[in-house]
Amino acid sequence: VCSRWIPLNLTIAQKKARVDWCKEMLKKYNGGASKDVYNIATGDESWLYAYEPETKQQSTVWVFQDEPNPTKVVRARSTSKQMVARFFGKTGHVATIPLEQRKTVNSEWYTTICLPEVFGEIRKTNKRRRIIIHHDNASSHTSAQTRAFLTGQNVELMGHPPYSPDLTPK
């Protein structure tokens, strides 16, 4: 069993807001049976780190009883990292969009590069398809620029309860 880390203790009101949101989504989408669930694309950003760790088995060596253990130089982990946004729908992966090296997400990137690519992938099969976006409450997701862009694209924004990182697709 894996658990998700929540960065603070939730108040009773925050817990209630989370439960209310979940109940509202279950009702709105008929417990997942509604065809509208196929219109939902959920996404989030995270850092991908590149390194090549050696497993315990790979670092095992044979020595005779009277031989000293060999000295092993440990490889330093790579400092390479890449921020990516990835989106999924009911049927699986929709898009993965990388940012420039060592950059972080902002509204400009989100509305000019990320979301247009996601919408393009979704609309490849049906240009008139309704899109519902679910993302967390990060500033780049809730900015006036992002809201205006979504309205202009005729995309519905699914709400997200505050302090609920465990309800996003990490």
Describe this structure in words.
By secondary structure, this protein is of the alpha/beta class. The chain has one domain (12-167): Ribonuclease H-like superfamily/Ribonuclease H (Nucleotidyltransferase, domain 5, 2-Layer Sandwich), CATH 3.30.420. The protein is 27% helix and 19% strand. The protein is built from four helices and five strands, in the order H-E-E-E-H-E-H-H-E. Strands 3-2-1-4-5 form a five-stranded mixed beta sheet, with helices on one face. The two termini are 16 Å apart. The model has no long low-confidence stretch (mean pLDDT 85).
- What's the number of helices? 4
CATH superfamily: Ribonuclease H-like superfamily/Ribonuclease H
Oligomeric form: single chain
CATH topology: Nucleotidyltransferase, domain 5
Rounded mean pLDDT is 85
SSE sequence, one letter per element:
HEEEHEHHE
CATH architectural designation: 2-Layer Sandwich
Write a concise keyword list for the protein shown above:
170 residues; Transposase; single chain; alpha/beta; Transposase-MT_Hybrid; Nucleotidyltransferase, domain 5; elongated; nucleic acid binding; RNaseH_sf; Tc1-like_DDE_dom; 5 strands
